[in-house]
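User: Can you help me understand a structure? I only have the sequence.
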Amino acid sequence: MLGLFSKKTSSLLGIDISSTSVKLVQLSRVGDRHRVEAYAVEALPHSAVVEKRIAELEVVGQALSRVVLKADSLGKGAAVAMAGSAVISKLIQMPAGLSDEALENQLKVEAGQYIPYPLDEVAIDFEVQGCSAHHPDQVDVLLVACRKEHVEAREAVLALAGLTARVVDIEVAALERVLALQVAVPGRTSALVDIGASMTTLSVLHDGRVIYSREQLFGGRQLSEAIQRRYGLSADEAERAKHDGRLPDDYPDQVLQPFCQELVQQVARSLQFFAESPQARALDDLLLAGGSAGLPSLAEVLGRELGVAVRLADPFAGMAIGDKVDALALQREGPMLMIACGLALRGLD
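Assistant: Let's start by predicting it. Here is the structure, written out as tokens:
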């Protein structure tokens, strides 16, 4: 079983393994508030994770070990996430009144018709959603499956760093958990644009729940590659220069602006698909997350072109900050820590 819907567990380290970095967040609860106890980020070589698939286990495991040391975090249990593209989910109907054991056995029998892989190659989990609206004698069950090799790769990386995977979640669920604390206003519809290295994900939330999600193969790596080409830098040099801001005077007009315009077009295309979907509704605002979210003028350009209020996502808004945490650095890096924060929240549900 994946452990997506396991019962409440103890405090967890939220570990987000992306194409460019490993990120750790540890939270606690003090009274009725969450508190950030530790966090750290460690860059990865370009070949370590390819399209969110771990290609070099030892390299990623070593980076995670450094993250754990930098964060000076306590605890060994962790929550990790799978990208939505690696997960199959299906809402199905099952007879009401079955025990969890009977339901699990029945699902194992019927799962083959919903999952396009041999069942011995996949990890599955399920959650009863409630009574079926159309069949009173049945319940809606969310069936989720992922190839075991992807889960095992993340478990192996954590083991190399002395950690244990207590929960394997889905990235969109981790994002939903964070945003539910911030935008769960009745009737409110918010979009989150998560700009990763090679993938940009649009998630639309209504009443605090994700109602639409779409991934596009476009991200911050295109900007890094444009910097490489124009200034003759290596991949690592371009990545550092992008984050440090140490680039020639023509960078804003000749490189950054064209990238921002292309990103606007990609986001507009995703929003058009949403507008044509059955879930379509007007947006109240749009939040930016991911490593490229804080690029100069990006929020302003998006807001102007899309005609919607745009702001940087802050997963730690309203949270207390622990003594070991650099509050200014946390605020600066917050948009790239959304998934890690959502995973850490899983242990406090």
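Now, to help you interpret it: The radius of gyration is 21 Å. The longest strand covers residues 33-43. Let me know which part you'd like to focus on.
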